[in-house]
Structures are given as structure tokens and as C-alpha cells.
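Whiteboard transcription, Tuesday session. T.W. wrote the C-alpha cells on the left side:
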């Protein structure tokens, strides 16, 4: 299995550190995502892009009525308190669950940012997340420009249509990084309405305000995310103690999306949520990260990525 990584972490002592640096690009063909020595890089951005495009050429070309079988190029953004080792382990777990063997959803790229990797580093991580947003936005802009080119090619020649969907899975404070990055990208591209940058966005245990998608805020971060995405799914649980602490640190009067769910009813119709409290295994203290270890939540993520209708997913979960 091949692994892919984009990072703005510095390189120190033969590993990725906790300081912000220029974006760098890495490939791992050795099948061990958690061993930094197995990664090749940094490599030029154009070479990295070429490797990704070459990989997608091997994806099956499925008819429109079978779009659920289409493969994905997925970006995974980790959360708070993750050293590189932690991020790599979580990335490997996600790849094992969704991007391996016969049932692979396509390929997954790790975006790892300089989280401080210390339990007492919440506020410094918040600043690191905000500082990382322009770097992630640069990556999203590359995706956007490439999608525009592909759309024009497909308009002239249907055989040139893209074989892959683009999707993002963000965990915890990685959603805050993404929130700010998508606002940068939306503004940079003149608030486009004609093309979705992301097909499916999964916000897992999102450490963001639960009124992020309030439609009364016309040009806010939530509007940017909703307009750049075909569908946004928030996976949350009231059992999450980490986000309870997070809410207490902010004193802003708003609850965390990943713990309390969306602040209904003022949200766009392409934004919805799934309460995963009964799907997560293990004690409450582990809930914040258990989404990536529970077979039931992994199955939900797969169905969401496949683009299944939300009522179909809710019926399968016994929610309706």
C-alpha cells in the first residue's frame, strides 16, 4: 500500500517536529506509515501531484448511475495534541479501515500540522491551527484549480471526465484548521458557486462552534464550507469529555459541534449530522478518538463517502 503526506511541520533529528515550516510533500511505498524512515521526501510539489494523478488513472471508470462505486482522493486532517507519531498512527488506522484491500475507497493523503502534542498545549495548538490555515488553503487551491481544468476537459470530451471524487475527513481541531482554510480558499476564488471543491466532508468530533453553519451569517466560515462542499456530515457524541473541556476553555457561550451537534434549525440543507454515541466502543474517556477504531463508525464513514442518501444511512442505523 502507498501512503501520501503533506505537511507544514519542520524536519528535526530525522523526524517531523512541532514547529511550522514550509509545505513539504512525502511518499511512502514501504507499507509502514508509522516509520518516518520509510517515507521518501521531501519531493517537489509537481512530482507529488504527478504521483497522485498517476494513481487515479488506475481507478475504475464507473457509469453515473453507479457513482457510489467511484473512488476518492481523500485528505485526512488530524486534530489537537497530535505529535507526528500520533498523526501517523491515526492515519494508518483510517487507511486500514477505508483505503486498503479490495474494499478500498481510493487513496488517502495525510495533512499533518504542527500540533504541540502535549495535553496542556490546547491554547498553543489553537494558534498553530490558525497559523496553518493559509498552508492548507494553498493545498485546497491546487485541488480547486485542477478541478476547474478537469471540468473544462470533460465538457469538451466526456471520456476525459475525472475518475475520482475529492473528499476530506477532519478530526477534532483539524476541523478548525479546515474551517479557516476553506474561508481563505473561498475568498481567493471569488466565492464560487459553480463547482464543488469537495464531494463529501466528514467533520469527526469537530472542535468548532456548533453554530458554525448559522445561515444568518452570510459570508462566514460556515458559508464558505457549505458552498465549497456537496455534502457535510458532522459525526458527534455527547459522551466526548475532551470537547467538554474544550468548551470550558473558550468561554464564548457556544457548545462544541462534535459534542452537542448542530445548532438547528438554521443550517444549509447540505449540512447534517449523525449522533455516534451508541456506535462508539470503549469507555467515555476514549470516545474522542474512538471513531477511527469502531467498526460501526468506520462503516458509517464508508456509506457517507459513497454518497448514500442520508435517510438510507439513518434507517440503517435505526435513527428513523
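and on the right, the sequence the group agreed on:
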Amino acid at each position: 500500500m502507498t501512503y501520501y503526506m503533506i505537511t507544514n511541520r519542520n524536519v528535526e533529528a530525522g523526524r517531523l517536529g512541532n514547529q511550522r515550516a514550509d509545505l513539504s510533500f512525502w511518499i511512502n511505498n514501504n507499507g509502514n506509515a508509522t516509520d518516518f524512515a520509510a517515507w521518501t521526501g521531501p519531493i517537489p510539489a509537481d512530482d507529488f501531484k504527478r504521483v497522485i494523478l498517476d494513481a487515479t488513472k488506475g481507478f475504475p471508470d464507473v457509469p453515473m448511475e453507479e457513482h457510489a462505486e467511484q473512488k476518492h482522493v481523500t485528505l485526512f486532517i488530524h486534530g489537537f495534541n497530535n505529535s507526528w507519531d500520533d498523526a501517523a498512527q491515526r492515519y494508518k488506522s483510517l487507511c486500514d479501515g477505508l483505503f486498503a484491500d479490495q474494499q478500498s475507497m481510493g487513496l488517502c493523503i495525510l495533512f499533518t500540522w504542527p500540533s504541540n502534542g502535549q495535553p496542556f498545549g490546547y491554547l498553543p495548538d489553537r494558534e498553530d491551527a490558525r497559523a496553518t490555515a493559509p498552508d492548507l488553503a494553498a493545498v485546497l487551491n491546487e485541488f480547486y484549480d485542477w478541478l476547474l481544468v478537469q471540468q473544462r476537459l470533460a465538457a469538451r470530451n466526456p471520456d476525459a471526465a475525472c475518475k475520482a471524487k475529492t473528499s476530506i475527513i477532519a478530526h477534532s481541531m483539524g476541523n478548525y484548521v479546515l474551517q479557516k482554510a476553506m474561508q481563505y480558499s473561498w475568498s481567493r476564488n471569488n466565492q464560487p458557486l459553480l463547482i464543488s471543491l469537495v464531494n463529501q466532508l466528514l467533520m469527526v468530533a469537530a472542535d468548532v462552534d456548533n453554530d458554525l453553519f448559522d445561515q444568518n451569517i452570510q459570508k462566514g466560515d460556515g458559508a464558505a464550507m457549505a458552498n465549497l462542499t456537496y455534502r457535510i456530515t458532522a459525526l458527534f457524541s455527547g459522551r466526548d469529555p475532551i470537547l467538554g473541556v474544550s468548551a470550558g476553555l473558550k468561554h464564548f457561550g457556544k457548545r462544541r459541534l462534535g459534542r452537542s451537534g448542530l445548532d438547528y434549525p438554521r443550517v444549509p440543507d447540505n449540512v447534517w449530522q449523525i449522533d455516534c454515541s451508541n456506535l462508539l466502543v470503549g469507555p467515555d474517556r476514549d470516545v474522542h478518538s474512538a471513531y477511527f477504531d469502531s467498526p460501526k463508525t468506520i462503516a458509517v464513514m464508508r456509506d457517507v463517502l459513497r454518497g448514500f442518501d442520508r435517510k438510507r444511512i439513518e434507517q440503517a442505523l435505526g435513527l428513523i
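Someone added at the bottom: The chain has one domain: 3-316.
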